[in-house]
Design a protein that fits this description.
With 136 residues, the protein is α+β, with helices and mostly antiparallel strands. The protein has helices at residues 16-26, 53-58, 73-82, 89-94, 96-112; strands at residues 7-11, 34-38, 61-64, 69-71.
Length: 136
Amino acid sequence: MGSDNVLTVYYDGLCKVCSKEINHYKKQKGAEKISFIDICSDQFDATAEKLDPFEIHKIMHVRKSDGTLAVRVDAFIEIWRHIPRYQFLVPLAENRLVKSILELGYSGFVQIRPLLPRYQKNNQCADSPYCEIKKA
């Protein structure tokens, strides 16, 4: 992560839905201060980043500038906090009731994500047990 960046977002570049959302964020004002790391890139090494190789492929991770991790819905809240267009969502998403609903929805997404369309790129992320989950 560059010294000017306030956030590192780890995303699954082979997941078409995930990539579409991340590409949207990349175009927003504020994104210039965010590093977007494709966890399915040949250059990505989860253990070098002190991340669990299975968990990083299972749920969304964001590393804040202080080195702490935000995962799941908290990861999205951190992204929204740094993109002015979405900052209005932060207090709403941090509301206990709303966050519970968002977490429930995210848990559902985690379950269906392996079944979603994926880009095929040279057997990327073959070393992750999560990537080996096949469509039913």
